[in-house]
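User: Predict the structure for this protein chain, please.
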Amino acid sequence: MVHAVDHWYSRSDADLELDLFCSISQTGMHAENCTTVVKQHRGDSRFFQAFDQVLQAPCTGYVLPDPNNPVFITVGASSTAGATSDDDTVEVDFSSHDPEKFIHIESIEISLDPAP
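Assistant: Here is the predicted structure, written as structure tokens:
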């Protein structure tokens, strides 16, 4: 939720950004992707959004079949929020009262393409 209320004596602004990200890395090779889910700037207004659908942050990378160099896959979410006065409220809630609605990783799909 992003909430900003302008008063006669001050101006209020609030910002919220929520991103999903993933990355694949192995030694010197690295691939990553970031998908912005919410990017809101509010001045004298309110914004609230709930998500029930599946959100994806696709990430494609190539790695080598090397038992001495493991492959690291990272999936996550990040948020940044800021407010300019005491009249602003910026909140990010990664869960709800329903245990099925926590942010969770439903699946990681991996495909192997043989080398030519």
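The chain has a mean pLDDT of 78.
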